[in-house]
Amino acid sequence: MTYRFLSPALSEATEAAEFYNGQVPGLGADFVEEFDAAIDLILRFPTAWASLSKEYRHYNLQRFPYSIIYLIKEKNQILIISVFHQNRKPLSWQQNL
Known about the structure:
Distance between the termini: 22 Å
Structural class: alpha+beta
Shape: globular
Radius of gyration: 13 Å
Strand order of the largest sheet: 1-4-3-2
Largest sheet: 4 strands, mixed
CATH architecture: 2-Layer Sandwich
Number of strands: 4
Number of domains: 1
């Protein structure tokens, strides 16, 4: 299985890592490490995580208040829709669609 990002989702992930690195040196790398581990889990078990709707699912990071919103596409591909901060307005991730 492969994955790709919508452009806004990639920007969200990058901005989160940069924010955390600005708070404490190395914390951004910790965010990226947890994010990469989450992607690996999603690729291995794409239907294991909670549904937001019939099409969309989300995975909550453990250490950081972010969710990965994704769609399972045909041909074994995951499309990352948003890297969503959990304290934002609940449906603001839909602006990435």
